[in-house]
Amino acid sequence: MENQLTESAHWFESIYMGIYEQVTNTDLWMTVGQAIFKIIFIIIIARILVNLVSNSVNRIFRKREKLQLNERRVETMRSLVNNVTSYVIYFVAILLILAQFGFNLGPVLASAGVVGLAVGFGAQNLVRDVITGFFIIFEDQFAVGDYIQTGQFFGEVKEIGLRITKIKGYTGEIFIIPNGSITEVTNFSIQNSLAVLDVRVAYEEDVDQVIEILNQSLKDAPTIIEDIIATPEVVGVQDLGPSEVLIRVTAECKPMAHFAANRKLRSLVKKIFEEKGIEIPYPRLVTMPQKDMKNFL
Fold first, then answer.
1. Which intervals hold domain Mechanosensitive ion channel transmembrane helices 2/3 (predicted)?
2. Higher confidence at residue 83 or residue 244?
3. pLDDT > 90: what percent of the chain?
């Protein structure tokens, strides 16, 4: 029994001495401290490089007139370049940090192709997102700042990456959509839009005279409403309602400006009607006393 206790004591003592030697090993702590310092230094340098590259890219793409690219294309390319360079810098930083932990980067880089192939089979959705994102940018399907609709999502494109696209809705929400799920896109920002305004006038008005007044009065609309780029066109009588004649007016506007232009154009038409004395129909209620009603019947 005493021999077993003695052996256990020697065992614990050897373990304690081994731990004590490691803890008090100055060279070990110097090596650990240097590794921690290098890791922190690598992280700081990576952050600085990302900021420097981002600022440089932004400065270059601001001079889009020298690049002979339009604004929407410039914003898309700027966002993509910043995205890709960030991935590359952080990937290199991770490899350098792994080297501080004693990993041999040669075999890691040599096996990257095999690992990438395995990841490709295991992450097909990710690969599909990246490939779709590449073709969206390459084919210029839409760009940053465009108003698009894909599926049930509608809004302004805020960011295009190789994997995801961010769309801001009218009420401020941000839709983050994987590129692989974007199969159909309606882009409202490529071509000019059309504001369509239906004007109602009373049956008592002379329709031809109303159309002539609108044609003459709306000639200055492009100077009054900046979103309108051409003189509005009075198409003519669109419909005959129960108590009004419907006259349609169309105006070519800047892309996605037809909503605001329509509101301003409606206000302008109301002022024209008030100045010219043209009556806008509205519901009327005629009341008759009961005794007069009996005589009427």
1. 83-124
2. 244
3. 4
